[in-house]
């Protein structure tokens, strides 16, 4: 049950998806983890119903395409190129090669924005436009704790899409301050409305816990009502945490592999696993293509 000292009007406003103040969010953060999860689940269901999207991704190997590339892409929602070349020309050549080897309806995405900004050859908008002309559909993500809204605007103005905002480093104990920073970012560049709040890099000496992770997912669901999707990465965080995150408000499972171990059989493919996990959470699975 909710703590009795939590104001009923505040709970109503949260369930309705209203924008809450920092003081409101600090009150909500005091809920025990089960109550917080229940509230986030109510907010998500009111906003999106029971549908949960999952995205199957064919990742381009560092060694290049193998003979099974057609098989890998046959069930994919998108292709991802993760390795940036030593030069712009080498990177453009890689994009063109992948685009030519990939069935036309399937989009080719690549890189993170901060990955490009840290590359010595990257010069900004003109390079982004060149990537778009080479056939790149968009950048996979941009870490909102590293890049600026203006840099995101340059990506979108170049003709590239941006799959989602992400977070590079752990959020820390002050989740409300994080929500305020994300809100300001989203207000400054409102065209990106998908956020993966769990950090891509976690220090080995101070890893986050599943308890901290699902609390963050819930607070993002409640505190950032403008978001279309709250994302959890299937490969990085695993099926168990992904399933729990769904009950705390996550709406999109990203990065489900298209490569399966044939020895496990059809019932243990990544596709069947993700569908089973979503259904077990009391939600309805929908592939990224079905939801498009």
Rg, nearest Å? 20 Å
**Average pLDDT rating:** 89
Largest sheet: 9 strands, parallel
Q: State the share of residues found in helices, binned by percent.
A: 40-55%
Structural class: alpha/beta
Number of helices: 13
Could you give the order of the helices and strands?
Answer: HHHEHEHEHHEHEHEHEHEHEH
Measured distance between first and last alpha carbons: 37 Å
Poorly predicted spans: none
Strand tally is 9
How does the overall form come out from the CA principal axes?
Answer: globular
Beta content? 15-25%
Q: Top keywords for this entry?
A:
292 residues, alpha/beta, nine-stranded parallel β-sheet, 9 strands, globular
Task: Outline the secondary-structure elements.
Elements: H1 8-15, H2 22-29, H3 33-48, E1 51-59, H4 69-74, E2 78-81, H5 88-101, E3 108-112, H6 113-117, H7 125-134, E4 138-143, H8 149-157, E5 161-166, H9 175-188, E6 194-195, H10 210-223, E7 229-233, H11 234-247, E8 252-257, H12 270-280, E9 284-287, H13 288-291
Parallel strand pairs: 1-2, 1-8, 1-9, 2-3, 3-4, 4-5, 6-7, 7-8
Summarize the structure.
The chain has 292 residues and is of the alpha/beta class.
Give an overview of the whole structure.
- The chain is an alpha/beta fold.
- It is 46% helix and 16% strand.
- It is built from 13 helices and nine strands.
- The protein has helices spanning 8-15, 22-29, 33-48, 69-74, 88-101, 113-117, 125-134, 149-157, 175-188, 210-223, 234-247, 270-280, 288-291; strands at 51-59, 78-81, 108-112, 138-143, 161-166, 194-195, 229-233, 252-257, 284-287.
- Strands 1, 2, 3, 4, 5, 6, 7, 8 and 9 form a nine-stranded parallel β-sheet that branches.
- Helix 5 (88-101) links the parallel strand 2 (78-81) and strand 3 (108-112).
- Helix 5 packs parallel to helix 7.
- The protein is globular, with a radius of gyration of 20 Å.
- The chain starts with 7 loop residues before the first helix and ends with a helix.
């Amino acid at each position: 049950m909710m703590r009795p000292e939590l104001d009923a009007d505040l709970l109503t406003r949260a369930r309705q998806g209203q924008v809450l103040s920092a003081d409101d969010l600090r009150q909500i953060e005091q809920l025990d983890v089960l109550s917080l999860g229940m509230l986030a689940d109510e907010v998500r269901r009111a906003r999106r119903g029971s549908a949960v999207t999952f995205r199957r991704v064919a990742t381009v190997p560092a060694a290049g395409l193998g003979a099974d590339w057609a098989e890998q892409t046959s069930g994919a929602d998108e292709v991802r190129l993760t390795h940036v070349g030593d030069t712009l020309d080498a990177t453009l050549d890689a994009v063109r090669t992948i685009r030519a080897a990939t069935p036309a309806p399937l989009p080719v995405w690549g890189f993170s924005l901060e990955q490009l900004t840290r590359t010595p050859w990257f010069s900004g908008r003109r390079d982004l436009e060149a990537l778009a002309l080479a056939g790149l559909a968009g950048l996979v993500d941009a870490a909102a704790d590293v890049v600026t809204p203006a840099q995101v605007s340059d990506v979108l103005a170049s003709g590239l899409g941006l799959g989602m905002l992400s977070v590079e480093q752990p959020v820390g104990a002050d989740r409300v301050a994080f929500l305020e920073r994300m809100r300001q970012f989203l207000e400054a560049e409102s065209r990106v409305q998908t956020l993966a709040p769990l950090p891509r890099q976690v220090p080995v000496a101070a890893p986050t816990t599943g308890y901290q992770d699902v609390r963050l997912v819930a607070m993002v669901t409640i505190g950032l009502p403008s978001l279309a999707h709250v994302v959890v990465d299937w490969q990085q965080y695993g099926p168990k945490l992904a399933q729990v995150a769904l009950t705390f408000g996550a709406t999109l499972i990203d990065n489900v592999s298209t490569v399966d171990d044939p020895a496990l059989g059809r019932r243990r493919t990544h596709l069947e696993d993700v569908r089973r996990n979503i259904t077990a959470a009391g939600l309805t699975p929908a592939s990224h293509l079905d939801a498009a």
